[in-house]
C-alpha cells in the first residue's frame, strides 16, 4: 500500500511506501 501525495504541479505525485515497524525493525511494502 502506497501513500499518494499530490503536489502543486499537475500530474506530479509523490509515492511513499507505508512503513511497518516492530521489535525486529522496519520493512515496507513495495
From TrEMBL:
A Pfam family: dTDP_sugar_isom
The enzyme's E.C. designation: 5.1.3.13
Protein's name according to its UniProt entry: dTDP-4-dehydrorhamnose 3,5-epimerase
Catalysis performed (reactions): dTDP-4-dehydro-6-deoxy-alpha-D-glucose = dTDP-4-dehydro-beta-L-rhamnose
Function: Catalyzes the epimerization of the C3' and C5'positions of dTDP-6-deoxy-D-xylo-4-hexulose, forming dTDP-6-deoxy-L-lyxo-4-hexulose.
InterPro entries for this protein: RmlC-like, RmlC-like_jellyroll, RmlC_Cupin_sf
Enzyme type, top EC level: isomerase
Record's signal peptide: none
Source organism per UniProt: Salmonella dublin
Domain of life: Bacteria
GO molecular function, one term: dTDP-4-dehydrorhamnose 3,5-epimerase activity
SUPFAM superfamilies: RmlC-like cupins
Coiled coil, from the record: none
Amino acid at each position: 500500500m502506497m501513500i499518494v501525495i499530490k503536489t502543486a504541479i499537475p500530474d506530479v505525485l509523490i509515492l511513499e511506501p507505508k512503513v511497518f515497524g516492530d521489535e525486529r525493525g522496519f520493512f515496507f511494502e513495495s
